Amino acid sequence: MSATPGAVADELSVLLGRLHRTLRRASRGDLPDDPLPSAQMEVLRVVQATPGIGVKAVASALGTAPNTVSTLVGDLTASGHLERLPDPQNRRAVRLTLTPAATALVDGYTDHRRRIAASAAEQLPQDDLDALAAALPALNRLLVLLGG
User: Fold this and answer.
1) Handedness of CA 129, 133, 135, 139 (dihedral sign)
2) Tens digits of residue pLDDT in 92-131
């Protein structure tokens, strides 16, 4: 029996949500320093991936309202994690970059999450690991279709 788009979408939505929440909880549990709130970490991860990005583009990447991201950016700037640089093309706009401390924080958090996920993946049977690897291109194509 072939999978239907609706059935796959239902299962995928539930599983990916659970996977994201579980990984977030697991990765926050044993960090030496208390990490920033998840929303702030997500902003930092987007800025790290695209240095010089603007607030609206961060909001678009996260699927969040620009005013929400603007508030997060203000908090992250005040805490010394982000630098707001004037946009040379538009004086009213800013370009965002991570401070060195924020780069170290995001790198450490990302490495920690990767180790946790790899540790769990190492416990899977090889067939499951192969199936997950085979599904990655399809998941990436789905992400593109969803606008991500």
Assistant:
1) positive
2) 889 999 999 999 999 988 888 899 999 999 999 999 999 9
Instruction: Identify residue 57 by its one-letter amino acid code.
Output: A
Q: pTM to 2 decimals?
A: 0.79
HSE of 77 in the Cβ direction (CA atoms, 13 Å)?
Answer: 14
One-letter-per-residue 3-state SS of 68-127: HHHHHHHHHHHCCCEEEEECCCCCCCEEEEECHHHHHHHHHHHHHHHHHHHHHHHCCCHH
* Cβ-based neighbours of 24, under 8 Å, separated by 6 or more: 38
Tokens of 11: 């299962």
AA identity, residue 32 = P
